[in-house]
Amino acid sequence: MAVLRIMIMITGIIVIPLVLGYGFMPSEEKEARGLLAWNLGLLLLWAMFLVICLPLTLLGKGFSEVMVGYGSLTGGALMISSFRIWRGREHSKKNTRIKEVSEVSGLSYLFWGIAAALLIIQLVLVIYLAYEEGDDAYYVAIVTSSRFSDKLYTIYPYTGFTTGLTVRYAMAPFPVWIALLARISGLSGAATAHVVMPLLIIPMAYGIYYLIGKKLLKDISGEKSWHLPFYMILVELLVIFGGYSTYSRENFLLVRAGQGKAVLANIIIPILLYLLMLVFEKLEAGKSTGVLIWFWLAVVLAAGCLCSTLGSFLLCILLGLGVFCGAIAYRRWRLLIGLLPCMILPAAIVALYLKLQG
Amino acid sequence: MEAFTIFHKYMGTGLILIWYFAVVIYLFEKEKRKNIRILFLYLPMLVLFFFFNPLFYRLYDHFIDGATYFRMLWLLPVSSTLAFGFLCMLHEQKGRRRLFLAGGGVALIMLTGTLVYSSPLYSKADNLHHVPWEVVEICDEIRVEGREVVAAFPEEFLLYVRQYSAEICMPYSRENMLENYDEFFQFMVGQELSVEQLAAFAKKAGCHYVILSKEKKLLGDMTAYDYELLDQVGEYLVFRDNSQDFRNTLE
Questions:
Q1: At what angle do helices B78-92 and A197-216 cross, to 10 degrees?
Q2: Beta-carbon neighbour count of residue A6 at 10 Å?
Q3: pLDDT tens digits, B88-143
Q4: Are B87 and A217 in contact (CB < 8 Å)?
Q5: A158 contacts B162? CB cut-off 8 A
Q6: Shortest CB distance from A190 goes to which of B86, B114, B164?
Q7: Is the minimum CB–CB distance between B89 and chain A shorter than 8 Å?
């Protein structure tokens, strides 16, 4: 039974995101589609969780109601996504292309091996090393109490006594999503936050680094080149040796992967940058950006709001500045119009936060 | 000035951010693709412009929280830019020079950065929960089916109890370690504990259990105040207050 529950959780964080991501793929590129789909699918899951969890929490509803609402929304999204994939397959059957098989150099194999070994070491250390992180006493306690008591943000996590709704933290209910994983898998809240989450977040973060690296190195690296694996080695070393400051986002990735702020720093902000790269690539090719990319930008912003209340503000700054620069550089002022729907949810959350904080 | 102090703290002990700025300058000269220039060069400069702007800092501090201002620096794509810039430099070299440069770059990261795992806050995990084994054993032992219980734990366990079990409540918490003064907590961190005072604090807080380190010197007899030594877990004594209500509230 325990194994079955863990398998269901793994399906929830691997298969479901893949289906969701493939159904709404914003890029026509043939490579690394699975990786992009998985990352985007998880972000869509987080965005949907925010849309369900935040209002229900503010309305004083419990964890089980959130689970029902989120389950229904995910089911609906899966149906739409599956339909889109099925339609896409029908279309692609008519346009079947033969994929070119490329050779990979020995040096490239060696570097990929080193990069994979570094990743495996980090993942193994996640299991065998514990980090004394003070903030976990708050965030992981929310995970544990949400999983146990069905109450959302009305229990003071440090002591366990009932309190009024803690608005500041309720606005970013990422720990409740972790509690959902814990409830599904049957693992304890602490094990889910300290072990399962890093095992999910660390590969995801490197996946995004990989996607960004592929774009950055496009001009100097061929498929059989050693550049991309060496780039990944450097990035991994920068993360592993990122302990020069407790504030650096690299440090957050390894020591606080179960906290929303680490996810904001290492998943949400980088993927927002990646999506902006896709937007600018299309503009440079003289193509229209299309609606899907704006949909994903809105999803990323919503997922950022789930991770951290401050995330809404930071992401608005990054997206606003990025699109503004793009509008000037490409003289495409219509980009600024696309910005508005993306920012509705984070702006509403920031406004609500400021209002409730008084 | 606050922004400079925060930036200095963010830089920490290493030179990684210095290398980042050096690579940004290099890429300003070398990188010609407009989209990359916008996102990896101009955008970070704009972020830094806002970051060091005192007016922006004041607004941030007023509306959000100055303590989280360092997170603005997360908007700088440090690792990907550094790795990319370095690969561009490598790409320009040939043969042995490329090999030496590659080795030098790796060595530079390792020497000027700090290994995250070298932090003294890391230790070997006792279990999959990443909670000290004593906490797990004590929590499992004092748990009462169908209700929550209150337990006064020693300072070293305050971070972990509620992470592991939502059924155990605590009269004081990490918050009292950091800032908010709490009389009971202050009493508990002492080396010599008067049992009379301990019982008064614990009963007032409704504690069903009191967990004490064996190293503490108890002045008085716990049994005189309805306490029973339930168990010894490692170096810790678990006392149960028999005058408290242990009934299952769900029945």
A1: 40
A2: 15
A3: 999 888 888 989 999 999 999 999 999 999 999 999 999 999 999 999 999 999 99
A4: yes
A5: yes
A6: B164
A7: no
